[in-house]
Amino acid sequence: MPVVSEDQNETRNGAPGSRRSRWARSAFAALSGLIAGFCALAVAELVAAVVRPEAGPVAAVGGAVIDRTPPALKDFAVRNFGTNDKLVLELGILALLAVFAMAVGVLALRHRLLGSAAVLVFGVVGAVAAAGRPEGRPSDALPSVVGAVVAAGVLYLLAGRLAPASGPSPAAGERGGGPDHGTFDRRGFVIAASAAAAASAGAGLLGRRLTSAVQAGAAASRRDLVLPVPASAAPAVPKGADLGIRGLSSFVTPNKSFYRVDTALVVPRLDANEWRLRIHGKGVRKPLTLSFQDLLRREIIERDITLACVSNEVGGPYVGNARWIGVRLADLLREAGVKPPSGGGPADQIVSRSVDGMTIGTPVETAMDGRDAMLALGMNGEPLPFEHGFPVRMVVPGLYGYVSACKWIKDIELTTFDDYDAYWVKRSWSEQAPIKTESRIDTPRPFASPKAGTIPVAGVAWAQHRGIRRVEVRVDGGPWNTAQLAAEDSRDTWRQWVWEWPATSGNHTLEVRATDGTGATQTDRRVGTVPNGATGWHSVVVDVS
Q: Considering only CA atoms, which of 79, 72, 76 is closest in space to residue 429?
């Protein structure tokens, strides 16, 4: 009589062997859900290439999340993830999608039709998010809907391959018969899953190529653009404006290093030849529709202007200085017949609209008070980078970006603050937000360990459109020491400073404060960024050896 091992007997009776097979089926079911989810994204990307890239489900859902994010959470994301906040959001969406897809795959194992139908939930969410955004169009729902329908079909097919094999198991006669629900056609599943994954990869690759082809015109229009010689050129940066101290931010921020804080998960890529700007609304006697060439034919100015984000914490990095070239905003408004409120005009707010749906409200009086508010075409000697608003963006000295610096601008409407709340105002930020006087220590870095002796403490200070009159530094709460200021370029740019510190050994706290051109000294009261910018003195702790 043959000897049967205990393991073989348990397997034959359907115990551990059957359980292993059932676990295998569940694992393959989760995999089938992931493949279906991959199909949904790949096909949606292909359709979005035809509709428009911003209509893709990840971008649409991400945009909807950003639209509904409370100010405190948005501030947390910018503070902790910086310019990678959008990448973190996209990865989070993909992770949740993966979990959802695996769960639906397991559901389809037991309820094939129900599981496949559940995939359509993904399509509905994406479609509603895409079409419901401020800039949404009915056609934006197509990528999510088509992707979900294809994914539902793929999941139904794969779930069918996981159906249990018919016929009794080896021990069925002993236990009353019936199929062994642990076995299935693995070879058939692998073939079907591989084919679906390969087709999806092909669709995704084709979608990316189509998107690149569509955007080729935008890239060419930027590449071929030669910025005009400005009629009003910026003065040369004065000698001594950049102190050249190691660790100190350069006076001019390179384009690749310039901060970027916006809500666009997909950077708009617009063809300058097709771009149009409409100016209309209250008090506009002559509505204008301008092309990029129309702007080039007007008087061009060039100015050095420092921009700052309202989400910049005390001592934060979201501030930069660049040389901008463009057309005076006030000239265009006057051409349209607009008068500021002080001149009897009925509108006190400019609502600028971006192609990505962003709305930004700027005081008419500020834009027309003589400062160099402009529609910028170039940045640091080259056409605007796509990330910074190509082909045209707004720049207004002295105001935080969320009330002035509309990128990818397409529309300017004259209205009132009583009649309309712009994007961020609806989310608890202030209607008006002049930039506050701020200063920052760039070197030494926090927790640095310099040698005792003379140490240069250096940084930047800014109070756009007021200028910087004085910067002071103190050590360990002691008396304030006046720092040496770099040469001033203009009152619209930041200013470098340095103080030679006779440092002694030990742990020390350095603090800085600035006084602006009006004589107002930066407050020590520490408040957060909401609703109109952070205040407080920047401090750095160092350990001198």
A: 72
Element (H, E) at 295: helix 292-296
Q: Do residues 446 and 471 lie in contact, with contact meaning Cβ atoms separated by under 8 Å?
A: no
Give the gyration radius of the chain's Cα atoms.
Answer: 30
Q: What span, in angstroms and rounded, lies between the C-alpha atoms of 90 and 76?
A: 16
CA distance 211 to 46: 8
**Burial label, 418 (beta-carbon count in 10 A; 0-12, 13-18, 19+):** exposed
* Pairing of β 468-475 and β 319-328: unpaired
The whole-angstrom distance between residue 527's C-alpha and the CA centroid of its chain comes to 24
Give the pLDDT band of residue 405 (cuts 50, 70, 90). Answer: very high
SS3 for 204-268 is HHHHHHHHHHHHHHHHHHHHCCCCCCCCECCCCCCCCCCCCCCCCCCCCCCHHHCCCCCCCCCCC
pLDDT (tens digit, 9 = 90+) per residue, 454-464?
Answer: 999 999 999 99
Q: Which of 475, 451, 454, 453 is nearest to 545 (CA)?
A: 451
Q: How many residues are present in the chain?
A: 545
Cα separation, 67 vs 424, whole angstroms? 9
Residue 180: both structure tokens together: 């062994």
Cβ contact 528:534 at 8 Å: yes
Residue 432 pLDDT grade (very low, low, confident, very high; cuts 50, 70, 90): very high
Q: Could you give the CA distance from residue 285 to residue 517 in angstroms, rounded to a whole number?
A: 38
What band does 73 get if pLDDT is binned at 50, 70 and 90?
confident
Give me the amino acid identity at 306: T
pTM, rounded to two decimals = 0.85
